[in-house]
Amino acid sequence: MSASTAPNLIAAVSEVRQWDRLMELAKLGAITGADGEPGVNRPCLSPLDREARRLLIGWGEKLGLVASVDEIGNLFLRHEGTEPDAAPVLTGSHMDSQPNGGRFDGIWGVIAGLEAVQAIREAGVATRRPIEVVAWTNEEGGRFAPGCMGSMAWAHFKPSNTWDAVTDSDGVTFREALDEQRKAEADIAKRPLGGKPFAYLEAHIEQGPQLEAEGKDIGVVTGIQGSRWFIVEIRGETAHAGTAPVSLRKDAVQDMIRAVTALNALMTDPTDVLRFTVGRIEVLPNTSNTVADIVRFTIDFRHPDKELLITNGDAIEPTIRSAVKSCEVTVTERFHALPVEFDALVTDAVEDAAAAQGLSSLRLPSGAFHDAQFMVPICPTGMLFVPSRNGVSHNPAEYTSSTQLAAGARVLAQALAELANR
Ligand code: GLV
Ligand code: MN
Ligand code: MN
């Protein structure tokens, strides 16, 4: 982009408009966190999700962007390029939230994409390539696990019917929820799954403490660590808590404790790089005076080193089997994303835009996974981060100021304009 068009573009990004849109979206599924913080619970493929999508489409269409959806519900808003057949630049993130989530995770990347495209149009910056703003289906995996279903299907990492039978906590299948959404969005133009963009650039809040701690405005994301998700089911036998001798029990809770203790030993890392989380435990029949016969728990295991991710991840099932005493065990892996590194084409565009705007930046990897992880094999990919207050995320206390978000949108706008004119 020429030095003369950049100031117009940067000036066209509206801090107030972007913030107002985010706050309007935050009303859809508004919750109050334990400390009184305003959070969001907007599950994917829910009526609230659809309301949010309609708002987005309305804002986009008002600008002249064209909306379309694919078979797994990924939603696109297209800004036409002066060469409509040129491979587009893709930007965006997700609109679903965690069940006890914040107002910025995911949704800001979509709204920043819209803000950037609006600024490009209003500043009269011509882009040779089209720019598409995407809202991927089910990034969080909060209602239907795992996350990143929309981007995985789009990138043909998995067929789009892979998760048809996955149920939410009410027993609704992913397929039923998706069919309902497709019916409700029958008026929106359809597009084929997949594509070959020129580049993908996703904006996101950092969700960690580094940018704030180092006083930096923009994170230039270098890559994403690998993640593996498992679900473990331990099956024993119910018994009376007062009468059944402990030596004769098949107590699923006690075997779960043995399994998790052994896993903690396996996952001990003096360097504190490895991430191991048991975040959800379901106990049946879940009553105080009955020995539990079923326990299901989740494992979220992450590491930036591929070999370690494979070795320790593959050791999970044998570790559990040798730890349990009296129950049957099933271990199912339901998500496996290897670590990725981003492309210099995109990371340099972000870094250069930040520098051109006098903003400080820091190169850093992402501990959270993102839809960008699945774009890496498809096209040059990168991400930009803005700081998260106290590094908090997946929590209603998640916060980034409107000023910080506006700085992120300005960098995004300049980097997108630059990429779209390559
Ligand atoms: C995404 O939300 C993640 O869990 O990293
Ligand atoms: Mn996210
Ligand atoms: Mn998230």
Structure description:
With 422 residues, the chain is α/β, with parallel strands linked by helices. It has 13 helices and 19 strands. The protein has helices at residues 5-12, 15-26, 47-63, 107-122, 149-154, 174-184, 210-214, 252-266, 306-314, 316-323, 344-356, 372-375, 402-419, and strands spanning 30-32, 38-40, 66-69, 75-79, 89-94, 131-136, 189-190, 199-205, 218-224, 226-235, 239-240, 275-277, 281-284, 290-291, 294-303, 328-337, 340-341, 361-366, 381-386. Strands 3, 4, 5, 6, 7, 8, 9, 17, 18 and 19 form a 10-stranded mixed beta sheet that branches. β1 and β2 form a beta hairpin. The termini are close together. The mean pLDDT is 97. The chain binds glyoxylic acid (GLV) and manganese (II) ion (MN) (2 copies).
How many beta-strand elements? 19
Task: Summarize the amount of helix as a percent range.
Answer: 25-40%
Stretches with pLDDT under 50, minimum 5 residues: none
Structural Rg: 23 Å
Output mean pLDDT.
Answer: 97
| Strand content bin | 15-25%
Summarize the structure.
With 422 residues, the protein is an alpha/beta fold.
What key phrases describe this protein's structure?
422 residues; five-stranded antiparallel sheet; binds glyoxylic acid
Chain-wise SSE layout:
Blueprint: H1 5-12, H2 15-26, E1 30-32, E2 38-40, H3 47-63, E3 66-69, E4 75-79, E5 89-94, H4 107-122, E6 131-136, H5 149-154, H6 174-184, E7 189-190, E8 199-205, H7 210-214, E9 218-224, E10 226-235, E11 239-240, H8 252-266, E12 275-277, E13 281-284, E14 290-291, E15 294-303, H9 306-314, H10 316-323, E16 328-337, E17 340-341, H11 344-356, E18 361-366, H12 372-375, E19 381-386, H13 402-419
Parallel strand pairs: 3-7, 5-6, 5-8, 8-19, 9-18
Antiparallel strand pairs: 1-2, 3-4, 4-6, 9-17, 9-19, 10-15, 10-16, 11-14, 12-15, 13-15
Helix pairs in contact: 1-4, 1-13, 2-4, 2-13, 3-4, 4-13, 8-10, 11-13
The chain binds glyoxylic acid and manganese (II) ion (2 copies).
